[in-house]
Amino acid sequence: MRVLVTGGAGFIGANLCRTLSAVEGVSGVVALDDLSTGSPANLEGVAGVELVEGSILDTDLLGRIVPDCQAVVHLAARPSVPRSLADPLATNEVNVTGTLAVLDAARLHGGAHVVVASSSSVYGANPVLPKTEDLTPMPVSPYAVSKLATESYALAYGHSFGLPTLAFRFFNVFGPLQAPGHAYAAVIPAFLDAALAGRPLPVHGDGRQTRDFTYVGTVCSVLADAVQRRVTDPRPVNLAFGTRVSLLDVVDLLERELGHPLERAHTDPRAGDVRDSQADQARLRSLFPEVRPVPLDDGLRATIDWFGGSR
Asked: Tens digit of pLDDT for each residue in 68-111?
């Protein structure tokens, strides 16, 4: 089986390519990436992975790549809630039109199994915890709207054309290869970048907002299993495990792992951010009963080790 990973040189994509390259039955992996946020360095030394530089908006390119692949894991996106507030049209173009292009290429060229990445941000202002997939989505940012469209298009292609699809809602994925040091960095790499440089940790708001952090290795093991078994579902599926940790709790864990106190610099809350997030994992467990998530402490330790070695 040959697998196409869109966004394959990015954080989750490159980790997934590494995982798939070691999976029995996967004969090759194609990483399609425009390198706007990904890097070829993320795939250095990974055997069996072909990096193709290009955009998911290039339908001719998709038409050349997709027919040779039996599975597609669609991770390419314009990430970040703040980035979507700065340029909603660009976020829509990549995340919505780009997803539609990938799905249509799969439909037109052999009906590959397509797994897409949605986001917990689709729950938005819905206050109910934990977040079950049957809750009414209430997105509060252009990014969240674009991810709701991503999953909706994927599931609609399943219903309309019989395309085998699976839509995962990711929750605050973290781990090695996640880029720090820019205005749109996710919270854990932003914290680690500051901590290892001796700067105060940037905490938006009071820091008591909660997240369901998921280690990238766990996410990749689920994605690889989904590809191998061609798992499908007509409904979206949370990819997280029901943990609920505040940002201040994460700082405390980092202090314990690093062995010294960390200064915090509180700033204004970010527009478009959700206050609390926690997944209901029942649907995920029904589809992937063997999955064993990496505990937060272990994931943070592995991430710290990678950050220290990458500096």
From this structure: 999 999 999 999 999 999 999 999 999 999 999 999 999 999 99
Cα torsion angle, 57, 60, 65, 71, sign: positive
DSSP for residue 97? I
- Could you tell me which of 230, 224, 235, 229 has the C-alpha nearest to residue 169? 235
E-strand stretches of the chain = 2-6, 28-33, 49-53, 71-74, 113-119, 165-170, 173-174, 201-204, 210-211, 214-215, 237-239, 245-246, 264-267
Q: CA quadruple 217, 74, 10, 149: dihedral positive or negative?
A: negative
Pairing label, strands 173-174, 245-246: unpaired
Give domain 2-171+215-241's CATH number out of 3.40.50.300, 3.40.50.720, 3.40.800.20, 3.40.50.2300.
3.40.50.720
- pTM for this structure? 0.96
Q: Token digits for 87? A: 């340029």
What does the alpha-carbon distance between residue 302 and residue 282 come to, in Å, rounded to a whole number? Answer: 27
Q: What would the pLDDT profile of 105-145 be if each residue is shown by its tens digit?
A: 999 999 999 999 999 999 999 999 999 999 999 999 999 99
Taking CA 279 as the corner, what is the angle to CA 273 and CA 284, rounded to the nearest 5 degrees? 135
Residue 128 has phi, psi (to 5 degrees) of -65, 135
Query: Could you identify the residue written with the tokens 């700067």?
Result: 199
CA-nearest of 294, 279, 207, 270 to 244 is 279
Given a contact cutoff of 8 angstroms between Cβ atoms, the answer to whether 26 and 1 are in contact is yes
HEC-encoded secondary structure of 207-267: CCCEECCEEHHHHHHHHHHHHHHCCCCCCCEEECCCCCEEHHHHHHHHHHHHCCCCCEEEE
The separation between CA 49 and the C-alpha centre of its own chain, rounded to angstroms, equals 20
Q: Which residues pair with 281 in a beta bridge?
A: none
Q: Report d(CA 247, CA 107) in Å as an integer.
A: 42
